[in-house]
Amino acid sequence: MADIVNLRQARKAKARSNKDKAAAENRVRFGRTKAERERIAAQERIASERIEGHRLDGPETEP
pLDDT digit string (tens) for 10-54? Predict the structure, then answer.
């Protein structure tokens, strides 16, 4: 005799599985640690300050 399957539960389980798989792929693709984000932000800030420090006419102001 065949096992009885609740189709609603099976559909939800499949959707949950697909969602977990997509989340794992996104973590690999977009995930960075907090230390990496802070290091990159510090590097960008230092580069920006260096560029601003080399300006001849001071910081730019909007009209």
Answer: 999 999 999 999 999 999 889 988 899 899 999 999 999 999 988
- Does the pLDDT at position 61 exceed 70? no
CA atoms within 13 A on the CB side of 6: 4
Identity of the amino acid at 13: A
Residue with tokens 């399957």: 5
Q: Evaluate whether residue 10 is within a structural domain.
A: no
Domain assignment present for 16: no
Return all residues near 32 (Cβ < 8 A) that are at least 6 apart.
40
- Residue type (1 letter), 4: I
